[in-house]
Amino acid sequence: MKKMSELQTRILFGGIGVLFLILMLWIGGWIFDLFLIAIALIGAREVYFAFEKKGYAPQKQAGYLMIIIFYLQHLYWSGKYDFVLTLTMVIFSLSLCVWKKDVHPNDMAVTVLGFFYPGIALVFAFLLRDFTHENYLLILALASTFATDTAAYFVGRKFGSKKLCPSISPGKTVEGSAGGLAGSVLVTILTGLVLNLVYHSQIAVIHFTVIGLLGGAISQAGDLTASAIKRYCGIKDYGNILPGHGGILDRIDSLLFTLPVVYIYALLFLI
Predict the structure, then answer these.
(1) pLDDT band at 4 (very low <50, low <70, confident <90, very high)
(2) Distance separating alpha carbons of residues 191 and 78, to the nearest angstrom
(3) Residue 244, phi-psi category: left (phi > 0), alpha (psi -120 to 50), beta (remainder)
């Protein structure tokens, strides 16, 4: 049997991933909540693994526990105590340097990093889901992010010549970046128009255009940020849980930047 190429593997498992995500959105409820928490924990594990390769000793159990506590209280109290609890946990977690002599401040810094990124950063998925017309804005953010990634990949493969950030990610090109931005705007507009019909909403096309532009730009910044961390830690991928894509964080790195931007835009202009 002929072995699939890297591109075929990427497309196959990317399609499976999209279908699974659609299923999670359709089911919703506590199953979707658990799904997001699991993604946050796996992503944090991948960050800790990356920095362990660099010689750090993140306190993984402490990071996982903080993530679980954060999401449980967020769901129970609807986010009322998010800021207070987050600040409290981070402050007290630093005291591990006192109780464990082999733990150093830089180890706790990495522990806190994993708690925030990707840990609790996915809280914006909950906020967007519950913002208006359940899943409306979340679907827009997902569409913008995945359209950017897909368009940038294929346009870059076909037309890419000028390197975008060779010191961070040698494979990315200016042409691919422009293609990703254009793809984001187009897909976000089309998705928004469909959602207007589904939800009987009247959000103007200009908002879809702006969200597409913002998502297309900021999602690429998220991708490059994750690449910079990988390069610093000396790894190619954050994991291998997703054939053709790498780890969970390799798949959601862009989304972690898009979600808060779309949420802030919605607060400012869609209320």
Answers:
(1) low
(2) 28
(3) left
Residue 192 — pLDDT band, cuts 50, 70, 90? very high
List residues bridging with 163 in a β-sheet: 173
And the tokens for 24? 């999670």
**Global pTM value:** 0.93
Per-residue 3-state assignment (H helix, E strand, C coil) for the chain: CCCCCHHHHHHHHHHHHHHHHHHHHHHCHHHHHHHHHHHHHHHHHHHHHHHHHCCCCCCHHHHHHHHHHHHHHHHHHCCCCHHHHHHHHHHHHCCHHHHCCCCCHHHHHHHHHHHHHHHHHHHHHHHHHCCCCCCHHHHHHHHHHHHHHHHHHHHHHHHCCCEEECCCEEEEEHHHHHHHHHHHHHHHHHHHHHHHHHHCCCCCHHHHHHHHHHHHHHHHHHHHHHHHHHHHHCCCCCCCCECCCECHHHHHCCHHHHHHHHHHHHHHHCC
Rounded Cα gap, residues 44 and 117, in angstroms: 7
